[in-house]
Design a protein that fits this description.
It is a single chain. This protein is α/β, with parallel strands linked by helices. Helices cover about 30% and strands about 25% of the residues. The chain is built from twelve helices and 17 strands. The strands form five sheets. A five-stranded mixed β-barrel has the order 5-8-6-7-11. Strand 16 and strand 17 form a beta hairpin. The longest helix has 16 residues.
């Protein structure tokens, strides 16, 4: 899933240039890393495929990114442009319906995100294999992240008893979670600080990563039972003919899928968690043994971004992070995060100045911008 606007990193991230396309290093963006990660799950052999679901305005960025991949890798990719942003349940319904029509309904699928940092790759692949083992046996598998603190920006999963496959010894030790699987007892919404601290004290609660695994037949039945109004318009679609596709930069794009715009128009804007995961009676949680970072604020991005620094001049200033496309001078200041977009790329110019540790307040600024009717800034 490569949609979304990523306003938590405004003004660098916007609807035209969302977070997933921001650079993590001189060599790769969040999106670049995510595509490589998905391709790694497919492996060198076999018939694994990667479906990219993204907004139409992001097609040029995706083509530009994927053009850097080898021809063999590009052949495994398919881009489906969304007619409208309708949250994750319609996006997943779209991908599942396409996979069933184009490649057969005996597929197992992983739903991954394009704007997270996951490392090391080997541990992620091991966890993905574990999730797919359970998915193939009629379960919805979700990755749970062992919490590193009382985070209020994530949903939580309550883990129940440990599970194992036939012939396996049940894993009983919660202290070393990597690859262990539990019955998911409940999903909890983003909590208050006090409630998050209670989750940590109680143990057995994990951050909800938003990454899932399932088989196509299983999830279609879950949609039919729990969210029939979402899946019905997609199941009415026919397999697109060859004329529906185009190739640009070596990337195959589903240019015209008859009925897709209508299906999106009929589907409610709802998350997969609300529509399916929270209702499913066969949900298991794979405890992640890999590092997972959502990068939900400028404070986190400042710690992780590498590469050449912008042109910055300092006088009696310290501990400041600057992300700018024009020269910036700082005098007598400290502990600031400064993001400057000059507008030279055609987007509206904007500047953010925030104290370190306070960048979660950017979401309040975004709401003020919306209230002022200046959505072009976003």
């Amino acid at each position: 899933m490569a949609g979304g606007s990523g306003t938590r990193l405004w003004p660098a991230s916007s609807s035209k240039n969302p977070k997933q396309f921001l650079p993590l290093s001189p060599e790769a963006s969040f999106f670049d890393s995510a595509v490589e990660r998905a391709l790694g799950i497919c492996g060198e052999a076999g018939d694994g495929r990667v479906i990219i679901i993204a907004g139409k305005t992001h097609i040029p960025r995706i083509i530009e990114s994927c053009a850097l991949l080898s021809e063999d890798k590009r052949k495994r990719l398919l881009l489906i442009p969304e007619p409208a942003a309708k949250s994750t349940a319609p996006a997943i319904a779209c991908a599942v319906s396409y996979a069933g029509l184009a490649w057969g309904k005996d597929r197992n699928m992983l739903v991954l995100t394009s704007d997270h940092i996951i490392r090391p790759a080997a541990l992620f692949y091991a966890g993905a294999a574990r999730a797919l083992d359970f998915a193939a046996r009629g379960n919805l598998a979700v990755f749970g992240i062992p919490p590193r603190g009382p985070e209020t920006g994530y949903g939580y999963i309550e883990a129940a008893e440990p599970l194992s496959l036939p012939g396996e010894q049940p894993p009983l030790d919660r202290a070393a979670p990597g690859g262990k699987v539990y019955r998911a007892a409940s999903f909890r919404e983003k909590p208050s600080r006090d409630q998050a601290e209670k989750y940590l004290a109680a143990g057995g609660f994990y951050w909800n990563s938003g990454m899932f695994a399932f088989s196509v037949p299983f999830i279609l039945e879950e949609f039919r039972h729990g969210a029939p109004d979402i899946i019905r318009p997609f199941e009415s679609l026919k397999a697109p003919g060859e004329a529906a596709y185009r190739t640009e930069g070596g990337l195959r794009i589903l240019e015209e899928w008859p009925g897709l715009e209508r299906a999106y128009g009929e589907a409610a804007p709802i998350s997969f968690d609300y529509a399916i995961a929270e209702k499913c009676g066969s949900t298991v949680m794979v405890a992640a043994g890999f590092d997972w970072i959502d990068v939900g604020s400028w404070d986190e991005y400042a710690k992780l971004k590498t590469g050449a620094a912008p042109e910055v001049y300092l006088s009696a200033s310290s501990d400041c992070f600057v992300d700018a496309d024009i020269p910036v001078a700082l005098c007598g200041v400290e502990d600031l995060i400064i993001a400057v977009r000059s507008g030279r790329d055609g987007n509206p110019p904007a500047v953010l100045v925030a104290k370190r540790g306070k960048t979660q307040m950017v979401k309040e600024i975004v709401e003020q911008i919306k209230a002022a009717g200046r959505t072009e800034l976003l």
